[in-house]
Design a protein that fits this description.
single chain; 75% helix; two-stranded antiparallel sheet; mainly alpha
């Protein structure tokens, strides 16, 4: 198999998962960010109606409802975006697992080592194991498979 497919599927997977992680962090920080921008304290989750209060403890009226709506809508958007990015990152991760599995199965290496890599690919660490394989054993396997000149 051409080595660029494994490399770019791993790069795409890591990029999408890193972006998804950043979106999840932003999702978590949304109440704090909106509180800082609006000068209103949002306590806890954005979806709780009594979560907005002014510094003196009185509940705000229309402004509080609008801020809660903004916070809740932002968190909904970020939550859906994070889920879509995770699903989108899973597709190239699956492709990388398949490519790496085929390379290991077709390689002339000993059976216990094949079994360890396959178990790591499919049962333990998924694309983390494929990345470790790409960075460590792949060069040796490709050199074993290529004809000597």
């Amino acid at each position: 198999m051409d080595k660029k497919y494994l490399k770019w599927s791993l790069v795409l997977t890591w990029a999408l998962m890193a972006f998804a992680f950043l979106v999840v962090v932003l999702y978590t920080l949304t109440p704090t960010l909106i509180s800082m921008m609006m000068g209103v304290s949002i306590k806890g989750n954005c979806g709780v109606p009594a979560a907005v209060s002014h510094g003196n403890g009185k509940t705000l009226s229309n402004i509080s409802a609008a801020i809660l709506n903004l916070c809740s809508t932002a968190q909904q958007f970020l939550g859906i975006t994070a889920m879509l990015l995770i699903v989108a990152g899973a597709l190239p991760a699956l492709a990388a697992n398949l490519i790496a599995s085929l390379e290991v199965l077709q390689s002339p290496m000993d059976n216990p080592r094949k079994a360890v890599w396959l178990v790591a690919f499919w049962l333990l660490f998924a694309f983390l194991a494929v990345t470790a394989y790409y960075l460590t054993d792949r060069k040796r396997i490709v050199q074993m498979q290529s004809p000597a000149r």
